Amino acid sequence: MTEYRLLRRTNGAGGLVECSCGRGPSTQPIFARRLTGVAGAEVARLVESQRTLRGARLVPVIDIGVDPEDTPWLITEGLEGESLRWVMTSLGAAKSFIKPHEGLAIIQRVAELMEPLHQRNLVHGDICPSTIFVGTRGEVSLLDAGIAATLGAHADLGPYRSESGSLAPEQLIGPATAATDVFRLGLVLYELSIGRPLFSGLSPAHVCHTVNGWMGLPRDKVKHVPEPWLSLLVTMLSVDPRTRPSMEEVSAVLSQAASTNGWKMGDSEIAELFVRSSRGRAPYFTDASPGTLLQLTSSMPAPSRPPSGTFERTVTPTGNPPVPSARAMTPPPGAVLARVTTRKMTREALEAVRLEDVAPTEPRPPETADFRVGSQLLERGAITAAQLQQARETSARFRIALTASLQRMGVDEDALVEVQAELTNTPSVTSKRMAEVEPGLDALSLIPAELSRRAQVVPLGLKGGTQLLVAMLEPLDTEAVSALKTALGGKGLVVFRAGPRALNAARMRLYGELPALEQATSPATAAAPELATRTIEALFKLQGARGFHAQALVNTAAALAAALDVDARGVEAVRLIAQALATAGLARNRNAWDVPRLVELQELIGFATDAEPYAEALHDFPAKLPPDPQTQAIVIAFSFAAQAGEPRPAGSRLGGALNGFKTRTQLPPELLEALMKALQ
């Protein structure tokens, strides 16, 4: 059993529930953290994590044990200083602030501290102002290494999560990674640059909701931040972990920035910052009182020599860890700066930068089939590296499949279908074959037009009278395949993969030539949609200026659908849905583009109508971009009108409205081009 003397509570050095300063058996200074509510198995995991971290350049853990009441305690080396959060709070109370070069110096030190951990495939898991420790002599250290990653890897917002506003989006669904550490350090850089946290709310649940909807940092939100750390900040806070820079690159960019601006970022500058923030503060380890006795039964094994290849911990004459200096293995700042600032390096140049450091790096996350589609297209020369990067960023930002993003960019459909078919082991059919297919009346009668539209399927023909050959957008869609098998009864089914454009063209050609199978049986019923459209247009005219805007909005949505290659029937459906939504807005004495929420919409036009999914998609935009062109047409047209204050701005107002809409929504270029075409 080991005895420790606890002198007093700290000012929050570290982010855990309770932290006290004290003395160890040899009177060495310590910090003691009480881990309330931790089970025995979690203590064992924590001990194992600390054994793994031993030798890294972090504040070392001296002991992990339980007191007589079976409450776990974590004992770390005691350093004289405070957390960065305490420094920021103290300066704010004194109406002072952290100078830019002081903040960048702290960020650079943290990045340098994290490099060796990431090279050994280890993460901190809880980087935030509460776990960044600023010493009295200007040293910067990291506290609580491995605690959050071990005891609270998921975002449970428990006591082992230092700050609820310092979460990365991926922590809401999984454990921390090296990219998570980069994102969390980016949050610290944002707060130092802007003066307030990026994520805040009335409760942890509200903060989680904000983090879950994070789509990336728009440049105009931090446009006053100068380069190069403007680009660095945007990339560190990217929603896609794969696009974030490494800690080594972060350190190199900040070193280059300091050199270019002639800023001093040494120990003395950080020590001066601490002096400004700590006026009237009492040192931790000068208390002469005996303190409170803490007896622990240790769970930590006896320290041993770190394994080969790990970092030995060295100590200066003052007893504090040395500040890590720039390492020779750091890539040339110019090359790294080019990557972080432009993100347009060639594959060869990027690989060269990656290979300049031969140390083992963090393993890439497992690639999904959707992710491998882009890599395969790149290898075959069907797309460029820049196109693939743009598609991946669009996919991550709007939470749509990578294949959908590539399709909207106009990638060769046959090449995309061929790659998907190979990766999923499904047969495919080319667009040329789809344009020539003549399945016959028997095959067409087995799949009604409504089923063809709903399941994204087109019959190719009957084989032997017992098997129906069909082309589908996604042969692995079990729900659609099940609906087909139910409709076919006892007949067999052979499914081929085809592209969306080829399917839409074939469906329009085949079912458009068979009015008995697709269209209504009576002329009066066939004319109903056109009559409804003209009736609503007449009602719009009675509404004066608001009705004029409503009609212009409907026309814009229909024109945008046509620009997105939606077939004639789809364009007509978009027109009808847009009229219904615009009418709902006018019925509430609002503008046509002010579509009411779902409950109000249901009160106006009834429940379970075709307009409901469009209204929901409209209210989810721009956080989520719908994948199908018809919904995109309505969502973009209505959102643009709401942003501009009118559906079709004229003259110089059009350019300003388009620029503002692009900045707010980060709309992919191909969709923005279609919108411009629809507004002409």
TrEMBL record:
SMART domains: S_TKc (SM00220). Keywords: ATP-binding, Kinase, Nucleotide-binding, Transferase. Its EC number is 2.7.11.1. It is an enzyme of class 2 (transferase). GO terms for molecular function: ATP binding; protein serine/threonine kinase activity. Residues 299-333 are annotated as: Disordered. Residues 1-254 form the Protein kinase domain. Residues 319-333 have a biased composition (Pro residues). This is non-specific serine/threonine protein kinase.
